[in-house]
Structure formats: structure tokens, C-alpha cells
Sequence to fold (329 residues):
Amino acid sequence: MIKPVALAAVSLLSGAPAFAQLPDFYRSVASVHWVVADLDKVKQGWAKLGFPTLQDHGEVSLQVKHRGQLTSCRIRVAMGNLAGLEVQWIQPLDGNGAFAEFLARHGSGIMSLNHTAPSLEALDKEVARLQGVGVPVLQRADVDTGAGLLTIVHMDTAAEGKYVLGLVHGSVPGGAAPPPVPFGLKRSQFAFLANDLKAVGEFWKKAGFPEMAVTHGPLRDLVYRGQPGRFDQELGWHRHGEIVYEWIRILKGPTVYEEYVKAHGEGPHHLGFDVADFDKVMGDWSALGFPPLQSGAWGEKGKPGAGRFAYLDTEGIGGVLIELLGRQD
Fold:
């Protein structure tokens, strides 16, 4: 929601000893595994917004080790790219494995944020490190892609950390190059809802991530579903890489956050993007059928650091909202 440049720096400094333990590959999120109930609807919706499917893998059968048990699962997979973020949309076709488990518990949404290890040895070393601090493996798949081995490990972090931490080595061959980024979007945030910021922060600190900085700043010009808004929230911040992680604890509603928790539970709520022409982009998305649900601003308009935010209604094409962020200084 807010662009916490100074707070991000504080978070990095206060978390420096823990951060030093992390492998460098945590500085970037290589991809997300985005589980959906209806892949065709999701593909059509994002294509309408200028984000076409770059590769459709069709139906895939995976041999996986899920919660310590060998099993097979059937899924449909398609790849897209949202302003530089590789997205793997995954529709479970049976009740087996971590993807089906997530869909049954959470509904459509982002299951995992994935980081690419430089080698299989580095991946296995990090898995062992996390297991050593009490984080078990949720699921592992070693897939022969025809061009090499693709290893995907999902760590069992969702219950306490509110999203699944993914570790990947190898890649899927082929796929079209992404088109120019529509609307001038620039990736800015991964944002999550959590009922207890302190507990979430302590969990990720145990796993070696920086300490979470928590803020409660004033907002203005609040609008919720076309009416004056009264919502309020406490915010937590992680910045251990290129993109900010924003954590949101609801203090007062009504708000889109309450709607999300009711439908999905805690977890990834929205992807935030900076835009240069806030009003135009919001108008363009509205004209395409994705209007703002909630909006507001922070800081003093016309002063350095001031800005605006709006959550756009993309719930129907994958269970995750898009947030636009624009400067007002």
C-alpha cells in the first residue's frame, strides 16, 4: 500500500545478522505458482488485460513426494508473465498433492513464491538448512522436461508464514517471449494478510529472514466500494530483495481485506505495481471490466513521499487482487 523507503532501510539494518545467513537467490522471486480452479477463465481474463499465455503445457502428470508420501498428481499448467514476474497458473485435476490441497483449503490464489537455486547442490543445502530450523518439506518433484531435470521443492511454511516458500532448479524449455509490459506497470510489492504480524515475523526470522518492521501510518481519501471508507490496518515490511513484502493486519473495516479472509483465509492478497499515470491506468482497467474496489492515499498531497493506491477487482481471474500505486508528490 505505502512505499516505505526509509522503513525498508531500517528493516534491512535491524535484520542484517539474519539476512547474512540467506543465500543470494532469495534477493529475487523467480516465479509464483498460482493455483486456480478454472484455467481457461484465468487465461482469458489476463489476455484481455494484455498478458497473454506464453506457453500452455496442457495436462501434466507429476510424480511427487507430498508430506513424505510418494504419489502422482494430474494438473493443467500454463505460463504467463506479469511485468517481469513469471507466473505458472496451475489447475489441479485430481485430489492429490500440494496444489489440490491448497485449492481445497484456500481456493484460487498464489500458493508459492519461488526462488531459483544456482545448482541442485545449493537447493539441497538450503532445504537441509531450513529443515534444521524446523521447516519441513511440503512437496518435492523431480521432473524430466526432455531438456534436463527440473526440481521443485515446496517448503511447509504456509501455516505460520502465510505462503509457501518454493525452491527451484532447472527450467522449462520453450515458451514465447513476453510482450511489452502493458499500462507501464512496474512490479513493486507482494502483499499478504495475517492476523498476527508478530508471529509471522518471528517465524520468518527463525528461518533466517530479516526482522519485520511494523508501522501504523495515517491514510486519507479512503473509498470502499464507491462509498467513503473507514478501514484501518497495521502494516509489516520485509525487504530482503528487489521487491517489498507487505504484511497487513486488519484493524477496522469494512475492507477488501475482510472479504479476502472470509473467502480464502490468510495469505497472498495482492500484487502491487507502480504506474506513472494512475488515473489513466485505473480508467483503462475499469473499462476492461476490472474496476477499483478500494482506494486511498498516504502522506500530504504535493509533498515528497505522498502517493495513492487502488485495489482492482481481479478476484474472478485467479483469486488475487492487483494494486496500483502512484506518486502524489
About this structure: The domain at 26-169 is CATH 3.10.180.10 (2,3-Dihydroxybiphenyl 1,2-Dioxygenase; domain 1).
